[in-house]
DNA sequence: CATCTGAGTTCTAAAATAGAACCCTGCATC
DNA sequence: GATGCAGGGTTCTATTTTAGAACTCAGATG
């Protein structure tokens, strides 16, 4: 991604065969990322999620079902002693692995959309209290900052726009 | 975000006063992230975007207008010698700064959703050819990996659920 | 003057969200 | 054993969006 100086024409790549497209099918529906945020934050029960998010309950039902289907979340029944059985929704490992995505999105909002008071939330390393930062670097250890040039090349799983599609038009 | 052991109750925070919520208002609509991906990849003209993405043209119109409104994209008219005037959509600096978000989303898809052939696209540092990685680390230089515990605490711009809201219920 | 291309706009139909009301199951209580 | 209530949804209608295709319009081209 990013300025591909004559390396190849990105329009030849099948737009749907793309890790961004695939990931957005899981987390790209309205509310989904906020549901995940709340799950990360330990809000786990249906009613709590509905109340805190202000999402319509039927939509929340669909989102949670989608997340469970996708394997990002699991629904667990539990019972506290003397209490009735309850359900909670927990991140699976695959859901947990979205943490860098959430943090990257949050970092963007902190940098570009915070009010004059500053960012709404501070996320820190529990061990040392240092603020968590999202950094890009390359496999050779070089830092990749905002004006570093990157190059995208088709990987082994790339899909190309088929001849038939191109000519059919 | 992430496991807040009795530090505070995340339900007391206003769900909408959140950098994730704010950012998703800009980039959370269907297709938006794919439009941005194509813009990063140098696909800039309306027809090219419509053809490559397979998005309905009226939706593309709305998404581009939204991105321009949000200041992530600008619409530029230009004319190649001997050609008619054309428009192109270019990322602004604020749009460009979404690169880590796109890369984090892509990295997730590469890790969890790639087929047996491997990831569709490889993004490398133009200077050295090393693959670009999204890393978390804390301000004190510690690496933050998947099982590092993080703590979220209200920042200066936090919004709390108002008494009136809580009691009105 | 007829055609083509770029860049949309304008329709209609299908799908999704918003909001509110309703339902059902287990406990707890009177 | 009827009542109440909380948790966890479902069902309903109204409103927005998206999907898909057709149509417009201006400037270059022949």
What brief labels describe this structure?
169 residues; 5 strands; disordered N terminus; two-stranded antiparallel sheet; homodimer; disordered C terminus; DNA-binding
List the helices and strands and how they pair.
Two copies of one chain form a homodimer.
Chain A: H1 19-27, H2 32-40, H3 46-53, H4 57-69, E1 73-79, E2 85-91, H5 93-96, H6 99-112, E3 121-125, E4 132-138, E5 150-154, H7 163-168
Antiparallel strand pairs in A: 1-2
The structure holds a DNA duplex (30 and 30 nucleotides).
Largest sheet strand order of chain A: 1-2
Biggest beta-sheet profile of chain A: 2 strands, antiparallel
Give me the number of helical elements of chain A.
Answer: 7
Structural class of chain A: alpha+beta
| Residues in helices of chain A, as a percent range | 25-40%
- The backbone outline of chain A, from C-alpha atoms, is globular
- Order of helices and strands of chain A, N to C? HHHHEEHHEEEH
Q: Can you tell me the residue ranges of chain A where pLDDT is under 50 for at least 5 consecutive residues? A: 2-6, 163-169
Which chain pair shows the most residues in contact?
A-B, 94 and 95 residues
- Work out the number of β strands of chain A: 5
Using the CA coordinates, give the radius of gyration of chain A.
21 Å
Mean of residue pLDDT values of chain A: 91
Distance between the termini of chain A: 27 Å
Quaternary class: homodimer
The proportion of residues in beta strands of chain A is 15-25%
